[in-house]
Design a protein that fits this description.
The protein has about 375 residues and is of the alpha/beta class. The chain folds into 2 domains: about 190 residues, Rossmann fold, CATH 3.40.50; about 150 residues, Glycogen Phosphorylase B (Rossmann fold), CATH 3.40.50. The protein contains 15 helices and 13 strands. Helix 2 links the parallel strand 2 and strand 3. The chain is globular, with a radius of gyration of 21 Å. It binds uridine-diphosphate-N-acetylglucosamine. The site of uridine-diphosphate-N-acetylglucosamine has 19 residues, from helix 1, helix 5 and helix 10.
Length: about 375
């Protein structure tokens, strides 16, 4: 028998933190299923807790990483440097036609820098988003990664405009849609079918509770800001019970600020970070979501769930123009009345999703990669 034709193009996907896993899973699946690529997956180890990493790999049906860099936590420079040092010898020894990175976390930047210095072409999934706030580490990560990437896959029109304004050649930019939405649409029905384990602790009836996530340094690292937000959330929870899956860094800050006692409250219910399917089900049934995450602004837009973003800017403006997302910052005097208004008014109609948020972004990415990398 003649040998199987060898897949010509070798792709290396690098992921490290929770939102990466959600964005990467559909792309890895589409590229693997196309049969055109030899795919490998590297986990940097930026997120290492079971609840932030393994649980996501299981729910998203991600393959086991081929390599794990075990870089772990540290200052931005330490974490970025650690990932670069550990990735460099791997890219030097294995031929890689394209390194694919996702989003805006430190792992994204570290992998892109390493590949660029070795002359390995880079594809950036979720390129072009800009908050125009350089105090956010993610904004620096996005800008630098975009500069270094040969292929820029964008999720929304604002990203195309940002890249055009920055003088990026149009041939590098591919408007493909949102792979986080691919994951959401694939897993929504299974998530609805899975009874959240949380249901044993609190009654989770559709649209009778709120969901909170909070982890950004600007909100949780400053004691006065965190305390102000916490008091407003306690007041809101008197009207609407709130479920709060707590990121490890936030839990540490809550303990250090002496607010941890509040974590036993039965209307502001704190729990460990939830696996992907459980969190999706929780968001889907929520009356209101309060968050400082990027991806959750997008997921609530697709689900049609009102979202208040505890930041003063967003790199994802389509979520605001669609009407599901409102920026309220971290001032309790703004956040609390906005939340009460959102809870008291009738639930708005679900808007149509943004263009190309249709569950097929990863397939488009795989086609572009075949087209652009084929020799
Ligand atoms: C990172 C991303 C952020 C993303 C978030 C999603 C950067 C700069 N930030 O933030 O954009 O929205 O992931 O969750 O890349 N920790 C653990 N266990 C872990 C990982 C972290 O306990 O598995 C704790 C450590 O104390 C660590 C801290 O959380 O120092 C922060 O972790 P890090 O990965 O640096 O950033 P995140 O806050 O998770």
């Amino acid at each position: 028998m003649p040998p199987e034709p060898r897949a010509e193009i070798s792709l290396c996907f690098v992921v490290g933190a929770r939102p990466n896993f959600v964005k990467a899973a559909p792309v890895i699946r589409a590229c693997s299923e196309s049969g055109a690529f030899r795919c490998s997956l590297i986990h940097t180890g930026q997120h290492y807790d079971r609840s932030l990493s393994d649980a996501f790999f299981n729910d998203l049906e991600l393959p086991e990483p081929d390599l794990h860099l075990e870089a772990g936590s540290g200052s931005h420079a330490a974490q970025t440097g650690q990932i670069m040092q550990r990735l460099e010898p791997l890219l030097e020894t294995d031929r890689t036609d394209c390194l694919v990175v996702f989003g805006d976390v430190n792992s994204t930047l570290a992998a892109a820098l390493t590949a660029a210095k070795l002359g390995v072409p880079i594809a950036h999934v979720e390129a072009g988003l800009r908050s125009f706030d350089s105090t956010m580490p993610e904004e620096i990560n996005r800008r630098v990664t975009d500069c270094l990437s040969a292929l820029l896959f964008t999720t929304e029109e604002s990203a195309n405009q940002n890249l055009e304004r920055e003088g990026v050649a149009p041939a590098r930019v591919h408007y493909v849609g949102n792979t986080m939405v691919d994951s959401l649409l694939r897993h929504l029905e299974p998530a609805r079918a899975r009874r959240p384990q949380l249901a044993d602790r609190i009654p989770i009836t559709r649209q009778t509770y709120g969901v909170l996530t909070l982890h950004r340094p600007a909100n949780v690292d400053d004691q006065a800001t965190l305390t102000g937000l916490w008091r407003a959330l306690e007041a809101l929870s008197a009207r609407l019970p709130i479920v709060f899956p707590v990121h490890p860094r936030t839990r540490r800050q809550l303990v250090d600020s002496g607010l941890a006692a509040a974590t036993s409250d039965d209307r502001l219910v704190c729990c460990d970070p939830l696996p992907y399917l459980e969190f999706l089900a929780l968001m889907d049934g929520a009356r209101l979501v309060l968050t400082d995450s990027g991806g959750i602004q997008e997921e609530t837009t697709v689900l049609g769930v009102p979202c208040l973003t505890l930041r003063s800017n967003t790199e994802r403006p389509v979520t605001v123009s669609r009407g599901t997302n409102r920026l309220v910052g971290s001032d309790p005097a703004v956040m609390l009345p906005a939340a009460i208004t959102a809870v008291e008014r009738p639930l708005p109609e679900k808007p149509p999703p943004p263009p190309l948020w249709d569950g097929r972004a990863a397939t488009r990415i795989a086609s572009v990669l075949v087209d652009r990398l084929r020799r």
